[in-house]
Amino acid sequence: MHGIDVGRVTTWLGDHVAGAVPPFQFEVIAGGRSNLTYLVVDADGRRLVLRRPPLGHVLATAHDMAREHRILTAIGRTAVPVPAVLALCEDIDVNGAPFYVMEHVGGTVLDAPIKVEALAPELRRSASEHLVDVLADLHAADVDEIGLGDLARREGYVERQIKRWTTQWEGSKTRELATIDEVASRLAANVPIQQGVAVAHGDYRFGNCVTDVERGRIAAVLDWELCTLGDPLADLGYLGVYWAGPDGRSRQNDPTSMPGFLTFDEVVARYAARTGRDVGGIDYYVAFSCWRLAVISEGVYARFAHGAMGADHDEAAIGEFRTAVDELAERALGLLARS
After folding, report:
1. For residue 2, which of 44, 47, 32, 22 has the smallest C-alpha distance?
2. Do 169 and 325 form a contact (C-beta atoms < 8 A)?
3. What is the pLDDT of residues 60-112, one digit of tens each?
4. Which CATH fold would you assign to the domain 6-103?
5. What class does CATH assign to 113-338?
6. What is the 3-state secondary structure (H, E, C) of the chain?
7. Sequence ranges of the domains in the chain
8. Alpha-carbon distance 219 to 200, whole Å?
9. Is the dihedral of CA 53, 218, 327, 158 positive or negative?
10. How far apart are CA 68 and CA 295, in angstroms?
11. Cα(93)–Cα(182) distance, rounded to whole angstroms?
12. d(Cα 314, Cα 63) in Å, to the nearest integer?
């Protein structure tokens, strides 16, 4: 099993996860483009999830399993639905890198329009509303009360992010791209005043949630590796990168181009009503999130190109990451021109 030392991990799971019964079956869960995620099924049919970093070419600040484990544990104290975390392994002799284990949450990850067939049209609006409400609940959490007050600096989130992702671009880029540099410059010159401090997920969208398609509700929020403290409107802007626009088009791993979902204007209005925050500058945050996702996409492309994500992959799909970098950078530039 690529990325899993089956013998050693089996022994560790039996010793550290209460009630887990070997032998275990391991299966790569499709959809993860950064950390590697596995479904683990024990002898009694119990389903667990194991997360570990990529196998190589990892930037120094990314893929911290202990940090992700800590965040999930803290968020589990809030109204935000997350999987229960079960165990953390920091001994790299077990599997070559740290990993953690959490409960598997049943439901559907709506990461493509075709997945929406599982969600009745009359439930798509309620699923959209709950996605917004969960985000509002996340941003309402008291960072000190849940134990994340020292996770990061509280102020200057966008400035920090621009610096961080500019550095990531320099460490990951496979070519020069002037648009990335121009957007970064414009973003840095027009940073909005931060509206308070919140836990910022960093990658919040339907594709990183498990949806209970029988009820039209979010069952669990996943993929917390980019989580930090900062400006809550950045998460809302990131939703706008994926959400279907007035032309009905959305990113290929987003379901909202299908009938029945809220429009992005309705998403923004619902968030504003739930939080009381001023959302008038949302175009800036969507542009910022487009630029940041462009940098992330370049990093994913670079890791695939270097073999860090394994050998079993679709070359055409990998090429789409490279194309997305250009498209996202151009979209960011357009949004900044009108904001």
Report:
1. 32
2. no
3. 445 699 999 999 999 999 999 999 999 999 999 999 999 999 999 999 999 99
4. Phosphorylase Kinase; domain 1 (3.30.200)
5. alpha beta
6. CCCCCHHHHHHHHHHHCCCCCCCCEEEECCCCCCCEEEEEECCCCCEEEEEECCCCCCCCCCCCHHHHHHHHHHHCCCCCCCCCEEEEECCHHHHCCCEEEEECCCCECCCCHHHHHHCCHHHHHHHHHHHHHHHHHHHHCCCCCCCCCCCCCCCCHHHHHHHHHHHHHHHHCCCCCHHHHHHHHHHHHCCCCCCCCEEECCCCCHHHEEEECCCCEEEEECCCCCCEEECCHHHHHHHHHHCCCCCCCCCCCCCCCCCCCCCHHHHHHHHHHHHCCCCCCHHHHHHHHHHHHHHHHHHHHHHHHCCCCCCCCCHHHHHHHHHHHHHHHHHHHHHHHHC
7. 6-103, 113-338
8. 19
9. negative
10. 21
11. 44
12. 23
Q: What is the pLDDT of residues 298-330, one digit of tens each?
A: 988 888 777 655 555 666 667 788 899 999 999
| Number of Cβ within a 10 Å radius of residue 13 | 22
* Residue-wise burial string across 170-207, b where 16 or more C-beta atoms lie within 10 A, e elsewhere: eebbeeebebbeebbebbeeebbebbebbbbbbbbbbb
Q: What are phi and psi of 258, to 5 degrees?
A: -80, 155
Which amino acid is it at 121?
A: P
Place of tokens 């370049």: 298
CA distances from 281 to 154, 190, 233, 322 (A): 20, 11, 9, 29
Q: pTM value?
A: 0.90
Residue 55 tokens read as 């196998």
